[in-house]
Structures are given as structure tokens and as C-alpha cells.
Records
---
Amino acid sequence: MKVLVIVAHPTIEKSVVNRAWLEEIRKHPDITVNELYKEYPNEQIDITREQRLCEEHDRIVWQFPFYWYSSPPLLKKWQDEVLTHGWAYGTNGNKLHKKELILAVTTGSAKERYQAGGRNQYSMSELLKPFQATSNLIGTKFLPAYLFNGTYTALDEEIKESAKEYVNYILARDIFE
Ligand SMILES: Cc1cc2nc3c(=O)[nH]c(=O)nc-3n(C[C@H](O)[C@H](O)[C@H](O)COP(=O)(O)O)c2cc1C
């Protein structure tokens, strides 16, 4: 299982959770790390490189901090530019078919705020629907997201543990077993 993690964090040096995750995934030879904000400081995405990377892997992970109930903008730009007609969807657009897609998302708000009646009113599953719809269109299998809610109040130990759990999760042979 070849895993590609596409990390989109605009201020990774100030990050706590995504940085801990990044340090952990870098230790694993079966994981390719593609840090978008480091790779493209001027935000000019090399579409050929990105498509080649996706083609070479079986499982793709989009790792990001939740910003305004979505991803930071460079991951959206990546989707707009890399997921092209004839490659990701449309006639003969089958290059990602049968690959797996996992979202790995951190949120400032605590878990209980992401539910009906909670401060954010909606669950993470509801808020992540646009990603699921994208996955449907490009023919990837949308696996359950790996979530870390409540980054503002997280303890060091919890973050450390989640980094290990995260790696195990994205490397697991069959996530539904
Ligand atoms: C521009 C911006 C928008 C944010 N929007 C949300 C949001 O919609 N929901 C939420 O729970 N947290 C939100 N946050 C908090 C981040 O999700 C949180 O700081 C991040 O997940 C922490 O991860 P890190 O330690 O890797 O930076 C936002 C933060 C920023 C800077």
C-alpha cells in the first residue's frame, strides 16, 4: 500500500497538531509526504508533478487544519487545477478510480460543538460533504476521516498519541476490517 499525504497548512511552523502529525509520518518509508505550502511558496502548482504523484500511490490523504469549515485555500486550488477533465473525471478521466481518499483534519473547536444544537450546529460528516462529493466524482473510495477536534485545549500527550494513531490509521491495510 503506497500512501501519499498531501499536507496543506499555511503556517506549519506555528502549528502544533499538524506539525506533530507531519513529524510522525516523515518517519515512515511507505508514506510519501507532499507539503503543498513548502513545495509551492508562490502557489504555482506543478500539475504534471501532482498528477504523477497521485498516479504512483494507492491511497491519498488530504491533511489540513479546518479553516472556515473547509480547507486552507491552496488545497482548494490544488483540486481546481489538478483534478482535470479527462484525467480525474469526464471522458477517459479515470486516473484516480479505485484509489482511496482519506481526510485528516484538525479543528480548533471541540467535538461536542460539531453537532445539531452545538455551537457549530453541524457534524464534521455534514461539513465534509463537499469533499465526499468530489471523491464520488473522481471515483475514489471515500474512507472515514481521521479527526482531531479541540486543538486549542489539547494536551501534549493526546497530540503525541494521535500522531501515532494517525500513522497506523492511514497505513492500515483494510480500514473496514
Ligand atoms: C483562518 C482560520 C480559520 C479557522 N476556522 C476554523 C473553523 O472553521 N472551525 C474550527 O473548529 N477551527 C477553525 N480554526 C482553528 C484551526 O482549525 C486550528 O487552529 C487548527 O486546526 C490547529 O491545528 P495546528 O495546531 O496544526 O495549527 C481556524 C483557524 C484559522 C487560522
---
Amino acid sequence: MEENRILNEIAACDKLLIGIGEEWNKEALPDIQSLYGKMAKLIEGKDYFIITTVTDGEILKSSLDPGRITAPCGNVTWRQCSKSCTKNIWEPGEVADDICPYCKSPLTGNTIEAENYIEEGYLPQWNAYTGWLAGTLNKKLLLLELGVGFKTPTVIRWPFEKTISVNRKSRMYRIHGKFSQLPEEIKERAEGISENSGEFFRCL
Ligand SMILES: [Zn+2]
């Protein structure tokens, strides 16, 4: 069973990198909080990092360690000025009426969907991630790619393929309802599972 194999590999790896993509949204997976909770339990005590392209901020409400999560596409619950007159980013509810205190423009979510995305919101955790990733070279690294399609492939999908091709001790599972295909060059160390990654994870 693939499920058992993945659990064994989680237990055996030195480093665990989890990529989360567009399949993990609350509309498609109403029990998303319980899935994150399950993930937190499953990987407790592991040296892990999570990179997500999901911008709904749900992952930050879970019991997963925010110091081990990077969300480079941003987070709608963090607010920025829609005119980007300031690089300030506010927590939810921090600014009254959701209006920029400097230029009085409406605030908007601090995500790549914003007209001028203020990247300062994600950079500290991004730097933590790249530092962590540098430390995985020649380590027994397991990559779990969950529901990452082609919406923003430069963030997780393509870099994961590169990581797999560089680290000979690495192993990857690409789980996606539609896009689990793998390039020929990495098939030796990677496996595609054609199943919705949320449902797959729920049964893990
Ligand atoms: Zn402003």
C-alpha cells in the first residue's frame, strides 16, 4: 500500500519537505483544519518545512509550527494598502475599517493577487526556508507534494523536481487528482499518485 509506504518513509527520513498547492482549499476540503491537525500530529518531532501556495491563511490557524511554514504567495488575512503607499502589513483587525491609515485607500489581502504585492510579508519565512533547504543536501530528504498543479509551478513544482534531481538520497511523492505526472529524469526517485491529495491524506 502506498499509504503505509509513505508513513514509513516519513518515519525514516532525516528531513521532510511538504509542498501544498491549490487542491488544499477550504471549498474543496471543508475539513481542512482537521487535515492540518492530522499533519501536525503525523510529522511531530520531524525536521520539516512546509511551503504552500495557498493564500487563505488556514494553515496558520492550525497547530503546525509557523516557524516552519512559508507562504510565498501571501495570505489574505494579512492586510496591505491596495495602493502600496507603505510597506506596512497589518494583522487581521489591527486597522479599523480596513482603510489604510496613511493614504485612506482600502486595504487588500497581502497576496500575489494584490495589484502591488508587498513581498516583505513573506520574506522572513522565505529566508528561513531557503536556509533550511540548503541544509538538506546529502541528507535523507522526503518530499511530499500535495495538490500542486500548474497555477504557480515556479514556487513548488519545478523547484521540487530540481531538488530531487540534485539530492541522490531524496525521494518524492507527487499526489494530485489531475497532475501527478513526472518528468522522465526524476522517475527513479519520484512517484506520482493520481488521487486528490486531500482525500489521500485524509486516509493516510
Ligand atoms: Zn496607503
